[in-house]
Amino acid sequence: MKKIFTNLTFWVLTAIAAGALLGEIYPETAVKMKPLGEGFIEIVKLFISPIIFLTISLGISGMGDLKKVGRVGGKAILYFEIVTTLALIIGIIVANLIQPGSGVNTKAVASGDISSYTKTASSFSWWQFLKNNFTIQVLIFSIAFGIFLSKYRGRQRIVDILGFFSKYVFKALHFVMLFAPIGAFGGMAFTIGKYGLQALVPLGKLMITVYLTMAIFIFLVLGLLLKYYKVSLWKLLKYIREELLVVLGTSSSEAGLPSLMEKLERMGCTKSVVGLVVPAGYSFNLDGTTIYLSMATIFLAQVYDIHLDMMQVLTIIGVLMITSKGAAGVTGSGFVVLASTLTAIRVIPLEGLALLLGVDRFMSEARSITNFIGNAVATVWLASNEKEFDRDKMKLAFESVQETENILTDNLEIEDKTPSDTTKKNHEL
Would you tell me which CATH number, out of the four given (1.10.3860.10, 1.25.40.10, 3.40.50.720, 3.90.1570.10), belongs to the domain 2-416? Predict the structure, then answer.
């Protein structure tokens, strides 16, 4: 039983439940818990840049073949574009089939001020994307440094130093992750306390549709991608479940990013593939965000009873293929990108964004989790495709998760047997 109470998954789940309960019963107090969630995310974000730099630099310098680096990078970008486009199409198809916006009474839906988002919205610029996205900047610098290191004759001394720092950076990260329940508690308490579960009722159909679509994408599309290389999606999800719960509680994929990179490497993906794919995926492989943007656009068209012909739908897909790439580099990115998209297509009223403010926080959890899972799957798939995946390590990693799961079952069985054993002794006496 003691092992249960030292299990991080148990405490994160407990914290999420406690945060939701506090938010529902004492909303004013729950809102004040916001710094706990934001503070945890900010601390974890401090690890993202050094981990990306160390992982990529050491990975490329140890790879030797720089052509392979270019090949992996090219495959990753192609993979991201194909999968996110597929996510876009699925979102539009499901939204048109279920029609969550039909019959919505705009007067009954709480709305808010969208001026801060519409002011930021502008035409997509690759320069602005690179300028605002620090993760991409670190990624580019790390690749350049890794290439330099691979050509430098005296690199071993530098590699040893970087390896030393890498060891202690991950040790520090493990320590910080012990506070994940506090961050999850603060994030969930604030969300429920600020927006309330009642905010979900008017737009409940949209919420259900979005979550259903993301579930279809994860278990059908991503599941089939992994099945191609005989990797179980379900086992992968159980392997990264602690990170998924942290992302759920904080509504931020950044909260689990450093830990994900370490786990994927431990699972069998090489350091170079993990270092290239995960950081790039954080900016280019936003499956959940892409699904949400496509569905929100169609939803607003349905709310205002605007019929979109095939050419307009194709225009929306084309615009979102570009604007969605900037979603990771801007604060309040979902609304900014959506505002940019609506401005570009000039068919749907921009003020419709106000209808989504009340439920956006709840849907951001689905977006973050889908983005997170999408990048984990992309890394495993590309590592397998490049034959840079150790299946023996994968089996050991999955087995360790199964052993942890058995702890609770074993303890419950022991408790069940104890009374019967006592009864048996009494009977013998």
Answer: 1.10.3860.10
